[in-house]
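Homework-ish question, so no full write-ups if that breaks the rules, but can someone show me the predicted structure for this set?
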Amino acid sequence: MAEQSIFGAAGGVMAAEGDRSIRARFVILLLCLALALSVFLSLTSGASDASAVLVLRDWFMGGAPADAALAARDQLIVYDIRMPRVLLGVLIGAALAVCGAVMQGLFRNPLADPGLIGVSAGSSLGAVAIIVLGATWLAPVTLALGTLALPLAAFFGGLAVTFLLYAIATRQGQTSVATMLLAGIAISALAMALTGIFIFMADDRQLRDLTFWQLGSLAGATWQKVGTVGPVIVLALSAMPFLSRGLNALALGEATAGHLGIPVQRLKYIAIVGVSAAVGASVAVSGGIGFIGIVVPHILRLAIGPDNRYLLPASALLGASMLLLADAVARTIVAPAELPIGIVTAVAGAPFFLWILLRRRGIVDL
Amino acid sequence: MIEARDISVAIGGKRIVSHVDFTARPGEISAIVGPNGSGKTTLLKALTGELSYTGTVTLNGRDLSAMKPVEAATQRAVLPQSTSLSFPFTVREIVRLGLIGGRSGVLPGEDRRLPERALARVDLDGFAGRFYQELSGGEQQRVQLARVLCQVWAPVLEGRPRYLFLDEPVSSLDVKHQLIIMNIARDFARRGGGVVAILHDLNLTAMYADRIFVLLRGQLAAAGAPRDVLNDELIETVFDCRLKVGALPEGSVPFVLPQSAA
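A: Not a homework solution, just the prediction itself:
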């Protein structure tokens, strides 16, 4: 009943009993404001004292700045460093949280997460293969695809793992959660071992490139990266709302969802391809950032319930805000150096994950 | 009308249902009975398209295997034996899922209140705000029935009868709610719909079913009206139990029959 009381005052006005849609809309509105605030904070804070407010004022008002040289430097910092980083943070945070929610709906389990069950590991493997072998064995691929080679390799790596998991864990239309989690561990280990082989083969320059896959970071965000992965993520995420009713029905089981008129097989394929695309694109630019996909949907289910029509957009908003905040911590806590963001999300997310397990011990029925 | 001809189902190389003919008419309750493991649920899953089968199933004259899920969903709703959830849905949210793909058949404006009406019919008035996972097994079963009722609220839509498939709808219910649920089924049939139900209680079956299909080891052992099918001989062969139909207990042993309901 605690779930009901959190936002009960806001939601209980007109809604029928047991109908949380009004409360959900209210929470989504709050999350929009939170995201706007997070974007503002991220643009204005950082190792440099550059003032985003002044830059934006100059930009909008067209006034002449007092100190032209300083203004040019600030402009550079805000436009070319902070803005692409904030945009990338929004895109990736939204992608990870929504993909977590979709995976959990698909596997009918609140513990499913692209990072946990090996999808991210598969994407990393694809990306690392391109980094290490891109100039030699895989040269034709990188030549043909150019800057798309990396995100595409990450996408297919994630896709391969997701399909493999689904094939292993599903028998006669029933997906075994225990099999899925265990198979995910095995496949993750295999993908990481193969990644290890590539790291073993890598030279010094490649090694430095590789380090951030393991830890995850939004550093090195550029407009070019935003331009490459942005469309992929936006496209994949914009397909997800069409799945929300189907995912709701899937909560009752695949057979029942079918009886309710949902084309279950098509739903599964779209969800798997969409998740692989969004996670692959995210991993391609930021490496493995964990726990956003599991923590965000879980908090939101407590607040607004598991209805995916509201859960998916709310996850996108809260995921984006949370990743921006984590990035702000990563950038400032050891300034002028910065912590990989994956460390921040893991330090905050892993204990939360354990808390979920303790609270609902019965879920993983191994 | 639901017509199934020569239905066989094999799972994992083992034949569970072989060469069964089955017909369910609108306006009737068709009951499937038989001992445990006789293939009742498997037959029902074939009739609803959940399992692949050999033979043909037609739903109102159309081949079931050629129908899209959403087309089938407008003509029949299916109640499974039990449904577990891993997310904290409220009762109302579950019942509302019945309105996803099918067509309730009520006016668009009335859809909004349909979950409450369906809950009232299964005697769960005031349960809309409760969490599904906190309910007892029998209450959960009735919530699912309310969801199924929402999906085909009008027994006849655009001149075509619609169907309820119920897999052991009363197995976890107390006697009062057994009667309530069976009366809902009878009412659905009287208003022109069709009901296919797997039942274990032979007394309820005799009382409510218009036609009985008796399964034994995946084959049809008998089919027909209760008075023609239920006899001492059949019960001994099918259920491997020497029981007398219509015999009163000797002495002063009390017995309670659903037929005595006022």
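Now go work out the reasoning yourself. Hint: Strands of chain A lie at 170-171, 174-175.
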